[in-house]
Structure formats: C-alpha cells, structure tokens
Amino acid sequence: MTEKDIESKQNKAFKQIDDFIKKIQIELHAEIFPEEFDFMSDSFADAAIRRNGTNPMSEEYTTKINSKREKLGVSNLDSSGLPTDNSSQIYIENVIMKHLLEAFQESSNKTKLKNQINISSFFKNNKNEI
User: Fold this and answer.
1) Is the pLDDT assigned to residue 14 strictly greater than 90?
2) For residue 83, what are the β-bridge partners?
C-alpha cells in the first residue's frame, strides 16, 4: 500500500467520523434543546404571532425553558421564542468533545496500565537473569 493509498483511506475514515459526529450533534441538540424547534410545529396563527416578535408559547413554558438554558450557560430565547445565537450548538459540541477526550484518556490509561503490567511481569519473571 502506497502513502497515497494510506492517506486516501485515512481521509475516508476521517470523513466518516466527521459525518457520524455531526449526526450525533444534530440528534443531541434536538434532544436537549427541543424548544429551538418549536417553531416547526407552529400553526398559521402561531407563526403569525411569532413573526410579530411574540412567542406563542405560554409564559410558564418560556420561563421554564429559559431557566434550563441559564443553568446550562446558554443564552435565552428572544421575545419570539427563537435562539439569538449559536450558544446551544457550542454547548453540544463541548459535551461531545468532553466525552471523546474522557473516553480517549480512559483508553490511553488502560493501555499504559496494560503496558506497565507487562513490563512489571517481565522484570518479575526475569529478575534472576538480570
């Protein structure tokens, strides 16, 4: 296998990983922040209200959602019930990144521990020969 073949296979694998992570981001975003997709279920009347800058959702619902968003460090929805920035997307990216880093670190620590065990047993089994 040539260097070019290896690079091509790596690029293909990285694209698959990127696509998979994007899919997870979309699904997790919809799960954690469903309020950002409420407008998709608007009736004609709700859509007209929202276009005029008013959130058709109840005040109780809006207060509950904004409280959740504040706890997560994400900006509140605007007066029409729509996000004002991409802070929720950044939140999701950070959650996924944190998980990946922790999983990688855990995997790395297991490999290091396994290598240490192998080295320790080598010295233990061969101490008479050293």
Assistant:
1) yes
2) 77
